[in-house]
Every structure is written in C-alpha cells, then in structure tokens.
Amino acid sequence: MAAGRKGKQGDDPGALPDGTVRWTAAMRGALAEFRNTPCRQCGATLSETQPLHELLDHIGRHPQPAWQQRPQRLRVLELHGAEALPLFLEPAPRKEALADLLAIHHVDAVRFLAGQVRHPECKTALAKQAERWPLLVLRELLAANPSRH
After folding, report:
1. In the predicted model, what is the mean pLDDT of the chain?
2. Full-model pTM
3. Are 18 and 12 within 8 A, CB to CB?
4. HEC states along 17-34?
5. Is 5 helix (H, G, I), strand (E, B) or coil?
6. Are 114 and 141 in contact (CB under 8 A)?
7. What is the rounded (10 degree) CA torsion for 117, 121, 124, 126?
8. Angle between helices 25-32 and 66-80 (to 10 degrees)
9. For residue 82, which of 45, 58, 109 has the smallest C-alpha distance?
10. CA 143, CA 35: separation in Å to the nearest integer?
11. Which of 70-74, 93-97, 125-129, 138-142 has the lowest mean pLDDT?
12. What are phi and psi of 21, to 5 degrees?
C-alpha cells in the first residue's frame, strides 16, 4: 500500500469499485458555482424530480458554455450519484473532468480510462486507479487492447 493512502482499498488486488462518489473540495467548490438558470434554447431548468435519462437527454441536446459544463455535470452527479457517469465520458477529457472521474468509484470509469489510455492524462489517471483496483485495471486494459496479449 502506498504511503499516505487512506483506508485499505488497495490491500485486496481483486477489489472492485463500490459505485460511490468521493467528493473532493474542488468538486464541492465547482458545485457551489452551479446556477440553475433557464436554458437559453428551451427555457427548462434542471429539476431534482427529473429522471436521469431526461437530464442526460436535455444536456446532450442543449450544451452549455464550457464554463458552465462542470458545475452542471456535478449537479447531476449530486442528484443521481455514479449513474451520472456518462456526463464525464468525453472523448478528450479536460483535466478537471479527469479529476472528477477519479472521484467516481465505478467499473465504467475504469473501463473508459482503459479505452483512452493513449492520452497521457488518461494514462496517469488510470495508474491512480490501478493503485486501488489492480486486477480490474489489468482486465480492462487487456479487454481494450486484445491484440496486445
């Protein structure tokens, strides 16, 4: 186990993510910037009572300016937990999106990073996940690159 790590998550190499979200101070700060203003295109706002599939559909059809995307994603994450993971799986994730992705302890987050390992930032994030879940990361890397094994 690496020095300074909390918990005993890395003791079991076969451990799997538990599907929880570990909120960081940076995530809480960005979430505090969320303003539930009406959409400029349709006038709708993000409602706590909306099902996740409706929120994902709305966000996909009505993208926000870049400075509003992270707070919006984090608000949906706060409402729906790790099920909001699809909002964080962008083809070329930004630095803050990767940091948020590392806080989402879900198998699909590991799978996404394994598929994006050619990006240096994703490779670094995947190495951090490998400290937590070594066998899962290895399995996902082999599945993402079957011709290499």
Report:
1. 86
2. 0.81
3. no
4. CCCCECCCHHHHHHHHCC
5. coil
6. yes
7. -50
8. 110
9. 109
10. 40
11. 93-97
12. -115, 125
Neighbour-count burial for 96-119, b at 16+ CB within 10 Å, e otherwise: ebbbbbbbbbbbbbbbbbbbbbee
CB 97 within 8 A of CB 26: no
User: Which pLDDT tens digit goes with each residue over 72-86?
Assistant: 999 999 999 999 998
pLDDT, one tens digit per residue, over 34-80 is 988 888 888 888 888 889 999 999 888 888 888 888 999 999 999 99
Show the tokens assigned to 51.
Answer: 């099902």
Q: Which amino acid is at 9?
A: Q
Highest mean pLDDT among 4-13, 46-55, 98-107: 98-107
Residue located via tokens 């020095």? 3
Give the three-state DSSP class for 104. Answer: strand
The strand pairing partners of 104, in sequence order, are: 21
The torsion defined by the Cα of 99, 8, 80 and 75, in degrees rounded to 10, comes to -30
